[in-house]
Design a protein that fits this description.
The chain is an alpha/beta fold. Helices cover about 40% and strands about 15% of the residues. The strands form three sheets. A five-stranded mixed sheet has the order 3-4-5-7-6.
Amino acid sequence: VIDQKDRWIGGKTHLVQTGDVLDRGAGSRKVMDLLINLEKQAAKAGGQVHALIGNHEAMNLYGDLRYTTPGEFAAFRTENSETIRTAFWEQESKGATGDAADAARQKWEAEHPLGWFEHRFAFSPKGTYGQWIRSHHAMVKINDTIYLHGGISPRFASVPLSAVNEMIAAELNDLTLIKEGSPVTAEDGPLWYRGMAQDEGADIAALVGQVLATHGVKRIVIGHTPTPGAIVPRFGGKVIVIDVGLTAVFGGHRAVLLQEGDGAYAIHRGEKIALPADTGAGLLAYLKKVLSLEPRESALAKYVAGVEAALASGR
């Protein structure tokens, strides 16, 4: 959907990014800037970019920075960063001096690298990226598919998408609303739930069926839980897990889900492969095709071997 100069050429295509473009690397700001530009370009062409909120977008808004790297803070550094940080330290230390104050300052500066304060302002309600993220949804329905970051747990199975988006927006616009069990931070919330990507058995299959029936859709597309490197259909294609570890931190696999007409395909390292509608021989054949496109020593090989062994044993 883009050319070699990162310009939109997707026409009326809808591009869905399911969140987590932030953290674990130095390029988060560049990725957000790219998506911001593509949103505008796609809209002019009759298409649309849906940059959904993932748990890492939310974490950067409410200040959980445990995965934010020094390089990400450095991307916000300016020629005034030293002055800004010194002013905040002086306010923090209240003019304290001596060896203890010097040691405390060294520790504090390590926790607040240059660019840290600019980063926090940029993600505030008045900051460029804070406003941009808060303008987005956590979940979107396009044609016969629901897209979101984590998954839909039993707690939210019958809740309208609009209501879930309103809950998330309310908490991110007023961080004091975030409590234990809040939709934004809860393990069974739409930004964090992993059941649809990991669980097995009748209960999770029933949940998937309930969600599809409630919303009148055929499938649910989720990210959040990294796969071994392939787009993985579950429950006969009713759930599609698309976090293939595109970032270098998770291996840098190159794949994307393509939906056109009634078909669903994986574009894996440039080759278009139809997704199977079964969890048996069709799934195994698909995974072996994907594996054939991977470099040697791929982590996917172990996963494919496990699927093959499970089918052979009747599991």
